[in-house]
Amino acid sequence: MTIYSNRADMSARETELELRNWLRGGLDREDGRLAIFDMFGEPVNKAVVKSAIASGLAEPWFSSPMRPQWTVCRLTPKGRDVLIRSAHTR
Fold first, then answer.
1. Whole-model pTM?
2. Domain of 27: which CATH number?
3. Which end of the chain is more exposed for a tag (fewer CB within 10 A), N or C?
């Protein structure tokens, strides 16, 4: 999985962990909707969103009516499978 980071202070591993944590949020929702904000109330790193979409783990769902520049994403079946498989192998 390729990670593109726009945060100079974050390593690729930290960005990958952020990606996995973000995607796990979709597992608990029936529609697979992913959060727009992280646990600190900050917008999710755009590099994380782009990586997830490019990898096929998430897909754009719709644009936020309040902020059209934010795209609401949801977990894809591939993303769900990857997360479930990685949970079973640990």
1. 0.78
2. 1.10.10.10
3. C
